[in-house]
Structure formats: C-alpha cells, structure tokens
Amino acid sequence: MSTAVDDELWSAIGDPTRRRLIDLLLDEDGTATSLSGHLPVTRQAVAKHLAVLDRAGLVTGTTAGRERRYRVDRAQLARAIAQLTEVGETWDARLDRIKRLAESIQREKDA
C-alpha cells in the first residue's frame, strides 16, 4: 500500500462535499448534473469533486452521451473503511496507554 495513494484517498474523502457525493452515489449512479441538484454547489464544482474522487479510485466514470455517469467503487470504499478502522484502533490503544500513564502519575501524587 503506497503512502501517496493513501494520502490521495484520505484527502479525497476529507472534504464534506465529496463525502456527500459518495453517499448520493451509494444510492444510485449519477452525473455531475443530476448530483448538483442535491448539493449547494454548481455543476462545475460537482464535476471537479467527482474528478478528485475518480483520481483517488473511489468512483469510476463512464461516458454516457455528453456526460459522464459515476458510481462508487465499493472495493476502494471498503479499503478506506478498513484503513479508518485500523487508524481508530491504533489511536484507541494510544489513548488507553496515555490514560493508564496519567492514572499512574496521579496515584503516585496521591500516595
């Protein structure tokens, strides 16, 4: 797993508009035009957000007439979810160690 790819993936889903696009595309495929009706941004802005998601591999686009129809790449989304779970577990363990250390210091102060 390449750090550059992971950075691109996390950068792509770090934006709330792009997360909303993913949510919309999980329900059904869409175009920049159809998706822009659900968001407070222009069709051009949606197209740019979709291009970022496409580069990160989170969506795939196919040409349909004059527009591109996008759908979520569920395998890549599952990969992102697995990474997020792993990061969450790592931070939970770190925070647990910090808590135990703080409790130990407090017990020493109280003794």
Overall number of strands:
2
Q: Give the amount of beta strand, in percent.
A: 5-15%
Kindly report the oligomeric state of this protein. Answer: single chain
CATH architecture: Orthogonal Bundle
- The helix/strand order is HHHHEEH
CATH homology-level superfamily: Winged helix-like DNA-binding domain superfamily/Winged helix DNA-binding domain
Outline the low-pLDDT stretches: none
Structural class: mainly alpha
The value of Rg in angstroms is 20 Å
Mean pLDDT: 92
In words, what does this structure look like?
The chain is mostly helical. The chain has one domain (3-110): Orthogonal Bundle (Arc Repressor Mutant, subunit A). It has five helices and two strands. The protein has helices spanning 3-13, 16-27, 32-36, 43-55, 74-110, and strands at residues 59-64, 67-72. It has a two-stranded antiparallel ribbon with strand order 1-2. Helix 1 runs antiparallel to helix 4. The radius of gyration is 20 Å and the shape is elongated.
